[in-house]
Amino acid sequence: MNPLSQLTRGVQDSVVSALTGLFSHGPMPLEHTLDYEGDPGLLGPDSVSWRVLGDSSVFLGGIRALVVQSAHPEVVAGVEDHSTYRADPLGRLSRTSVWVTETTYGAMPEVEAAVEVVRNAHRPVTGTSERGLPYSANRPEMAAWVHNVLTDSFLTAYREFGPEDMSESDADQFVAEQTRIGELLGADPLPRTARELTEWIVEHPDRQVTKHQTSATGFLKSPPLSPPIKVGYRILFDAALTTIPEPLLTQLDLQPSSRAQTFGSKTIDALRWALGASPSWHISLVRCGAPIPEGLFRQGLPANAR
Fold first, then answer.
1. pTM above 0.85?
2. Which of 109, 117, 188, 277 is spaced 20 to 30 A from 102 at the CA atom?
């Protein structure tokens, strides 16, 4: 390997190591997925979801989802009253990542186990919001807000910062696939097209400014991360704001900087170059015996997957 190649590999490996550290504060997703040889899971290798959630734009989409989810008074009250995200922000990040990874890429036993974990975690999340309304994380309408915002955020991030243009039919297919995950948690309603999904969120009658919303967005704007990681996070946070419709931005009292789109695009491109596509996508293709696209994956698989 020549010196330039060694330098390039070193830079890529350092990025992989830094991001792996962010997501290593919880259980390892798909740890035993190869035990389910041939199982395509809930969505399968030909799904749009495997492609969308395997791209580096997923990092920006995840940040966007957390910001927008805080616009619902009962949802954000549940987070503020019951979550440990302030004391353990990386733990919450890891658990969210495990949920998305296992329901999207996992074999069916892994999908079912992930659903059971979340159901158990949601059971005690009950209380009363600032506006005096009762909440429960297992209520269909609360589950729908969380799920629909997550779906819309991943899709929007991919369409704005992904490696390719996405057709309206593929966007609708992604939403339809994700409703299958929402249904497992009893979420309702679940819009079936990309346009209906965005309209449902923007026009949602329960959106309202609360102190909990202000507190949550303030934390998300500047979480306690190490300085090098925080620089990259703030670029992605700012870029995420460029994808949020104006009515929501006004409620959230947030605005992106003038260069947010440009800096965000360059950062996502750099992450895509360093990381390649998701290793969870890769190992799931191996489990299914599906073709492995050449040049798409850069990170190695566990020894028993090779």
1. yes
2. 188
